[in-house]
Amino acid sequence: MRIRIAAALSAVAATALLLSGCAGAGNPSASPSPSASSSCLLDAKPGKASDAVKVEGKGKDLTVTVPSDADVDGATGPERTVVSKGDGKDVKAGDLVSVQYRIVNAADSTVLDSSSRGVDDQVPVLLDPNEQSLFVAALECVPLGSSVVLALPGKLLGEGQKAIVVYAQSTKELPTVATGTPVAPVAGMPTVKLAKDGAPEITIPKGDPPTETKIAVLKQGDGPTVASGDYVIVQYRGVTWADGKEFDSSWKRGTPAQFQTTGVVPGFKKALEGQKVGSQVLAVIPPADGYGAQEQGSIPANSTLVFVVDILGTIPSAAPAQ
């Protein structure tokens, strides 16, 4: 069994339970905004179960062992023990960080998921409470560089769920804009001007849109290559060719987005796969590779879409063969 990183909490149905039902006083929202506050959403404390977990080794040889008498299921709530304290600034919801992790079954220490699929046994994690609340609960409000153990009783994870233990270490903060080398613009494509914070302003050229998807690299990154089915972390802005009006933007929401490449329209998928992390990509997507004759929210039917995408991280959907 593997718990995919982009679905780690949905797989155990714990998002609302962890960050709402256990989040202290008041009546917190079931879907808190990552950028709403820098305060702790859970701030779990150490307990007998989390203190008993043994962490040994480094890198890919790191192991997490839960003693048979740890009794994680007997804990009254989530427990978190800081194994080693880093010297960076406190990590908070909404941050993008590189993480080494292991998720193990509390009953027998079987590894359910790990960061071994990533480069140097690390993967980028966007600490979004709505999708990555497991890692928010583990890493929030401790300094960057810290390693922690989070013990979660099965009763907190949903009916019939088994207790798990999470080891996680935030190793470094990652950029939230593309950092690649600028590339000369392609004639006939929309022009892009960047604001001080990196947000793109898109100007549509005169004339008819292309009938096939057109992709141009605006910045060439040198990180890992996005493969089909990967989970990607991106900043993006989308406008329609017809009038240049924005219909979606992670910049406007104030935090990057994360999704699987196979879960977006074909043109967006083409713009992502094969590109390297750190790249900024411009994509012009005709209706055939977009939403076709369907109206989609504020997007009129038969619209040509224009996206500027900063590729910040990619996570393989499965660990490499051992």
Describe the structure.
With 322 residues, this protein is mainly β. The protein has two domains: 5-173, Chitinase A, domain 3, CATH 3.10.50.40; 181-315, Chitinase A, domain 3 (Roll). It is built from six helices and 17 strands. The chain has helices at residues 15-21, 48-52, 133-139, 154-157, 250-253, 266-272; strands at 54-56, 63-65, 79-84, 96-105, 111-114, 123-126, 147-152, 164-173, 181-182, 191-194, 200-203, 214-220, 231-240, 246-249, 257-260, 280-285, 305-315. Strands 9, 12, 13, 14, 15, 16 and 17 form a seven-stranded antiparallel sheet that branches. Strand 1 and strand 2 (63-65) form a beta hairpin.
Write the layout of secondary structure elements.
Blueprint lengths: L14 H7 L26 H5 L1 E3 L6 E3 L13 E6 L11 E10 L5 E4 L8 E4 L6 H7 L7 E6 L1 H4 L6 E10 L7 E2 L8 E4 L5 E4 L10 E7 L10 E10 L5 E4 H4 L3 E4 L5 H7 L7 E6 L19 E11 L7
Antiparallel strand pairs: 1-2, 3-7, 4-5, 4-6, 4-8, 7-8, 9-12, 10-11, 12-16, 13-14, 13-15, 13-17, 16-17
Characterize this entry briefly.
By secondary structure, this protein is mostly beta strands.
Strand percent estimate = 25-35%
Whole-number tally of structural domains: 2
The radius of gyration over CA amounts to 21 Å
How many beta-strand segments?
A: 17
Sheet bearing the most strands, described? Answer: 7 strands, antiparallel
Q: Spans of 5+ residues with little confidence (pLDDT < 50)? A: 1-38
CATH classification, class level of the largest domain? Alpha Beta
